[in-house]
User: What shape does this take?
Amino acid sequence: MNSLPDQFNALVIGASGTIGTAFADLLRDSLRCASVDGLHRHSAPPIDFADEHSIAEAARILGAGGRRYHLVINAAGLLHTEAFMPEKRLADLSYQQMQATFQANTFGPALVLRHFVPLLASERAIMAMLSAKVGSIGDNRLGGWYSYRASKAALNMLVRTAAIEVARNQKNSVLVALHPGTVNSRLSQPFRGETIGRQPRDAATDMLQVLDTLTPADSGSFRSYNGAELPW
Assistant: This one.
């Protein structure tokens, strides 16, 4: 991350997950990174997207004393659980699955935007929300995966809208929705992730390289791990 100030501060949310762990490890290996904080349900402080208060409290604790971040990455997300898999048909839709998926992929990240944008450093800062190409309405050719697609499309709108507001007062900040591609992780395991997915460290490296190139003019965009801008 050569575009960030030397000895920059980083924060990874969802740091216990496969991709989040890879991000945190890479940043800790960087001589230019002064600190890496990792948040998850069992961190100190904890953050749980099912608990709105925990998001606000984590931001309050980390921001105490005027601490500011040059890089914030939200790598938390949900595609399936032991209770459900992505819906293939309209007949599969249920409130329970939609609520759980939106809470993890949309509502939690929305509150991260609310509480952590004020912690962005003034000189240059990047906040990346891991989204997904299947959240692109324009690119949807196959259908299915209703809750996941819709939750990521909604996340993209939140990032775009927040970027417009943030640009008014924090002109050096970049907010971006970022597609990681298929990664060998628990999320992709039921979908041949072990076979077709990239290694987590490779995926995190690709995404950090993309983030390093972004300028405030790119804020509010939807990017792929290879740098391409994706359709809404």
User: Anything to note?
Assistant: The longest helix spans residues 146-169. The mean pLDDT is 95.
